[in-house]
Amino acid sequence: MTTEATGVAEAAGLRHELYSYSGEAQFLTGVMSFIDDALAADEIVLVSVPEQREQVLRGELTGSDPRVVFMDTSALGRNPARLIPAWQRWISERAGEGRPVRGIGETDWNGRGVAEIAELRYHEWLLNLAFTGSPAWWLLCPYDIDTIAPETMRAISRCHPFVLEKGAHQEYPDFAQEPYVWDELEPACDPFEELFYSRGDLAAVREKVTACAAPYGLRGDRLRETLVAVTEVAGNSIVHGGGHGTLRTWVRRGTLVCEFRDDGVMTDPMVGRRLPASSSLHGRGMWLVHQLCDLVHVRSTPESGTVIRLHIALPTPS
Questions:
Q1: pLDDT digits (tens, 9 = 90+) for 171-201
Q2: pLDDT in tens, 203-227
Q3: Residue 312 has pLDDT above 60, yes or no
Q4: Within 10 A of 292 (CB to CB), how many other CB atoms are there?
Q5: Which domains, and CATH codes, for the chain?
Q6: Residues 6+ apart with CB under 8 A from 45
Q7: Which of 102, 204, 209, 266 is deepest in the core (most CB within 10 A)?
Q8: Where in 32-190 does DSSP place strands (E)?
Q9: CA–CA distance, 287 with 35 (Å, rounded to integer)
Q10: Is residue 189 a contact partner of residue 250, using CB atoms and an 8 Å limit?
Q11: pTM of this prediction exceeds 0.85
């Protein structure tokens, strides 16, 4: 299914810049020049890169400058939807200091499956939307072209309004100011389990997911977290998706997939990806789903309704 998300204007609060590199030397050249420029301007720099790259950068930095802060995102897991709230939290904490802020954000693409790569691409596009109207800041996104497929790099390039190239910061001609076109979801595995649900059937939804997960060793706290997530999504179908929906479950490559389909339409591409306001109880359901699941796909259009896929990593067999 190929669908389009709502278009996004260039973000006023974020300068979103691509830096493609090949090899450690090029990585250091671009990233260290970015850090040096920031420190010369007395700006704070938040660095979020894979562990191997972090060690290299720490070795290049002379002394311990409190203006360079490293953020460990390993605790966030592999769900890209958790990254924007982490950046939002950090930016909001620094906004009151009155000092310009920069960020360096690189994700480890090694070992990523098709489903994860699709969400990483979508995350890059959503960054432009997430920080519209936020305090001004500058995010450099390094990408190792030796580990990322050329077609994926072309798609990523279209999400960045600016580029660092040959030492120069400039507008990026490849940037596309247009609606986002999602990758097609992988077809459900055959055979799969299916359940039609409506009002009063949330217990049946939980029972179905429990029965599908049990043979694969999903139990205890992780099972309870999964059941909270599926209850939230099914409940949304009943309240906002026409009063009913269809659940499909299957296992692929060590992952339990729970797919929900209904007739509703989600008009907000950022649903579940914003840091919830502490003063409001609304809008927390899908945010919680993203925190509990290892990956979440949301596809919603007026023509086809809404599809939400929850991916839960299964225990590794002893």
A1: 999 998 888 888 889 998 878 899 999 999 9
A2: 999 999 999 999 999 999 999 999 9
A3: yes
A4: 20
A5: 14-171 (3.40.50.300), 193-313 (3.30.565.10)
A6: 34, 35, 38, 39, 67, 68, 69, 101, 102, 103, 104
A7: 209
A8: 44-48, 68-70, 101-105, 137-144, 162-165, 168-171
A9: 32
A10: yes
A11: yes
Evaluate whether 289 touches 296 at the Cβ level (below 8 Å).
Answer: yes
Give dist(CA 76, CA 89) in Å, integer. 13
Q: In residues, how long is the chain?
A: 318
| Amino acid (1-letter code) at residue 128 | N
Residue 265, both tokens: 């339409």
Which residues are CB-neighbours of 218 under 8 A, at least 6 positions away? 226, 256, 312, 314, 315
Residue by residue, DSSP assigns 273-305 as TSPPPTT--TT-HHHHHHHHSSEEEEEEETTTE
Long-range contacts of 146-155 (CB under 8 A, 24+ apart): 146/22, 146/23, 147/109, 147/110, 148/109, 152/117, 152/121, 153/20, 155/121
Distance in angstroms (rounded) separating the CA atoms of residues 111 and 133: 35
